[in-house]
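Memo to structure team: turn this sequence into structure tokens by end of day. - J.P.
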Amino acid sequence: MSRLNILILAGAIAYPLPAVAQNSDLQSPPHLQKIGNARQLIVDGKPFLILGGELHNSSSSSVEYMQSVWPRLGEMHLNTVVLPVAWETIEPEEGKFDFRCVDGLLAGARENHLKIVMLWFGAWKNTYSSYAPGWVKTNIERFPRVQTSDGRDTERLSPFSTTVRDADAKAFAALMHHLREADGDRHTVLMVQVENEVGVIPESRDYSQVADASFAAAVPAALMNFLETHQATLNPEFRAIWEAAGDKKAGTWQEVFGKTVLTDDLFMAWHYATYIDQIAEAGKREYPLPMYANAALIRPNYEPGQYNSGGPLPHSMDVWHAGAPSLDFLSPDIYFNDFARWAGSYTRPDNPLFIPEAQAGSVGAANALYAFGRLAAIGFSAFGVDDQGNVPLDLVGITNPSERVDDSPLSSMYVELARLAPVILEKQETGGLEAALIEGDAQRAARVFVGDYTATITRVASTVGANERIGVMFLQTGPSEFLVTGCGDAQVVFSTDKPGLPIVGVESIDEELFESGRWVTRRRLNGDENSQGQALRLYSTDSAGGRIYRVRLYRYR
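Reply from structure team:
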């Protein structure tokens, strides 16, 4: 029996390290590390898979409010909660810091066996400055705003202001210093997001005097040097913009990138990135946790200013990497149907994938499978999880709160992913992991290569609906053996174009369930249950039952 089979049958839930973690690893703060084919999050010396959920923006501003929320998060089978900490909460008066709420959040997470990804709502949240302290908001002369082309101030602090930046950095550094003291030996907090969905709306750039002067000046040498050094690996859309303007090595923003609104976007991207880099750098000097920035994505046919112009979008990721080297990666908040394309755009050798905000439900379950299985994501998080699992108990016939368990599709999938995490993490490192996603009205099938085989996944009509999203993950445990789990009603047929016998048959399919802390084999699926040896049938109820399939194939003429 292979090592992976032993781990699964034993129900192991901790990642099997090739060697015992050293004391220095256990004492090190969470960090990213290149392991084999993947970059993974290391927590207490072991790779960690974030199965997360993000709270609504203001939920974590009150320890008392969170008292009823924490137990529900546990019912959702999360291992990590993504939650904001606002500048106004920790520095209500300038220079006077209050970390009682932060300490309450740490205590709540620990009591409920959860980790935290912390979101710093400093100068900006969704382009606005709504979570800055009152003493910042009310002093526009000292803390200037982004301005429109007709000279009006907006509700956005200026990324061109060193006064804003220095105050923001001071508060963030104080937060990170406190986290090191309060959590440096506990590692409850895994990572920190710096600001939230930055950008300019409703115009494509800031038109203040300082912004106009910067826009008319030469593109900074640091950015031009980065472009020349990395030209071969730049995002294709961004490289095309630069080359279409003449591939210049110096000049003003419009000379280098052209006289279009996309140039405004790139200009703002540089200034948001360099601002946030200094915030992150100040924080890392106090406590060097992994840090990232997130992006609100673009709706079809939207122009800069209709979306968050200047945010870390795929076409401007290289500008952000040049301007914010203190950030470890950039992340997309994905609410659109084209999940595979957007998530793939943020999966690069220099940018591991983490999804901080996404849809929940069956859509989220399928997307999570794809993110972990195809894109080697370090984590997935659905938004607004404090809204879920909130049905009054008496309405569902439960009188004892301890009996309530969230069985939503994403929660059920998290149960499976937690059990499979040791195998997923190892396969992310060594290979032998793949996933497929069927999404949108037009897509009816998907095809992926798994070992020496091709797996073709097609929809099966169900009561859920003909356009149900399908996610399927394959973990190879032998030359012709796979563990398969999925979300949605689908059929999987295997074929091959490799040399040798041309026809692929199903030798056996074993239905395996997780019971009493271990994987046990239940039914051997043959006959009608595997289309007479031709296919694997997946059901939308599989994840709710904690079910995976061990599939063994063979080849014949």
